[in-house]
Design a protein that fits this description.
Layout: E1 3-8, E2 13-18, E3 25-32, E4 39-44, E5 50-53, H1 59-70, E6 86-91, E7 102-103, H2 106-114, H3 123-136, E8 142-146, H4 156-159, H5 166-169, H6 180-194, E9 201-207, E10 211-217, E11 220-224, H7 245-254, H8 259-268, H9 271-275, H10 283-291, H11 295-319, E12 324-328, H12 329-334, H13 336-343, E13 365-366, E14 375-378, H14 383-394
Parallel strand pairs: 1-6, 6-8, 9-12, 12-14
Antiparallel strand pairs: 1-2, 2-3, 3-4, 4-5, 7-8, 9-10, 10-11, 13-14
Bound molecules: adenosine-5'-diphosphate.
């Protein structure tokens, strides 16, 4: 079986063609600057990369170009589109309507549309991707996989905000959480690797440009650090993370800033980028600057590690202890120094890192010592594979 996985943004579209059974990736790529001018980078496995400026006025044009390169006689990996069995879409916000992935039909599209107020930046783009595929590949089965779905098992004490009830009942304002496909993939993998009993209480640390943690009991999410939006939780590349709301009120009043502009500042100009006084939102740059003695970069790294460590402590309390801690995503998989810094101070929980193992990067490995009470893992995430597997399962 071959599944095309699509992650559509407002002016970009990421794709991957893969076999969910063999896990083989046939090709992946990125269309950028859709609606502006257009650029595609297509990477077919074992063949030359196609990297070109190509005009893409809209998402339908982008999908048509993806179809063209996938079936191209030189850069292509399939003869024609009939070889693709189904399309799986990453959709940001499923609100409280979707507890799992679903086949896309009119009702599903309407439900995604209904969630636009909750995911105003992403859901419209996700819908554009879906509708572009419907037009370009009529009749091809399509599946939506929601970033929020895995977190829908949280109990009300975790997902309700302590604000008047009508904002929950009428406006659906609550904690939803994101990166759910990744949290599901790595927590499931951790259970496969350890067995259900030894991976009963798992804390997943998805640390990348965007970062979130989740507390998972027996494979089900109990709590997660992001909230109504991906702004909440630990500080991130450019997002502030948890913050006293009065900070926003103060800034808006003093600088005559609108709520939208203030939120843009908290989403795009904050996080470790701001803490490092503009050095970078990329942790590799922060490491390099801190090594040269840049104090602001060091503060950004220390603050990030401190806040992640605090969430681990909180989730150990929420789960009544912890069996496994799993690091995943760009930073979690690759930065041994950040993992060490986060775990430094978690000895009281029974966490003992193996300094040598912790140097390994990007592979599935236990980085704690054999006598560590908590097993600490690095498990590379694979959201595309999870989306392809869900799609295959629903389209059987
Ligand atoms: P996204 O949230 O955009 O999917 P990723 O999960 O790809 O992000 O993570 C990207 C981030 O991972 C980069 O911004 C960088 O800060 C961090 N990263 C990747 N490799 C390393 C490394 N070797 N050392 C430190 N940080 C790294």
């Amino acid at each position: 079986m071959k599944v095309l996985v699509i992650n559509a943004g407002s002016s970009s579209l990421k794709y991957q063609l893969l076999d969910p059974d063999t896990k083989e990736v046939l090709a992946k790529g990125l269309c950028e600057r859709i609606g502006i001018d257009g650029h595609i980078k297509h990477t077919p496995t074992g063949k030359d990369v196609y990297d070109a400026d190509r005009y893409m006025p809209d998402h339908e044009a982008a999908i048509k170009l993806v179809m063209e390169v996938l079936t191209h006689n030189y850069y292509g990996v399939i003869k024609d589109m009939s070889e693709i069995d189904a399309v799986g879409h990453r959709v940001l916000h499923g609100g409280d309507k979707f507890v799992e992935s679903c086949i896309i039909d009119e009702a599903c599209k309407q439900a995604i549309r209904d969630c636009i107020p909750l995911g105003p930046l992403h859901n419209p783009a996700n819908l554009m991707g879906i509708e572009a595929c419907e037009k370009a590949m009529p009749g091809k089965p399509q599946v939506a996989v929601f970033d929020t779905a895995f977190h829908m098992t949280m109990p009300p004490k975790a997902y309700r905000y302590a604000i008047p009830t009508k904002y929950y009942t009428e406006d659906h304002l609550r904690r939803y959480g994101f990166h759910g496909t990744s949290h599901r993939f790595v927590s499931k993998r951790c259970i496969e690797l350890m067995g259900a009993e030894k991976a009963s209480r798992v804390i997943v640390c998805h640390l990348g440009n965007g970062s979130s943690l989740s507390a998972v009991k027996d494979g089900k999410c109990q709590d997660t650090s992001m909230g109504l939006s991906p702004l909440a939780g630990v500080p991130m590349g450019t997002r502030a993370g948890d913050i006293d709301t009065c900070v926003a009120q103060f800034i808006m009043n003093k600088y005559n800033m609108s709520a939208d502009d203030c939120l843009t500042m908290l989403n795009k100009k904050s996080g470790v980028l701001a803490l490092s006084d503009g050095v970078s939102s990329d942790f590799r740059d922060l490491d390099a600057a801190a090594e040269k003695g840049n104090e602001a970069a060091q503060l950004a790294l220390d603050k990030f590690a401190y806040e992640v460590r605090k969430y681990i402590g909180a989730y150990a309390a929420a789960l009544g202890g912890v069996d496994c801690i799993v690091f995943t995503a760009g930073l979690g998989e690759n930065s041994g120094s950040m993992r060490a810094s986060i775990c430094d101070g978690l000895e009281y929980l029974g966490v003992k890192l193996d300094a040598e193992k912790n140097k390994l990067r990007g592979e599935e490995v236990i980085i704690s010592t054999p006598d560590s009470k908590v097993t600490v893992w690095v498990i590379p995430t694979n959201e595309e594979l999870m989306i392809a597997q869900d799609t295959a399962e629903l389209c059987k």
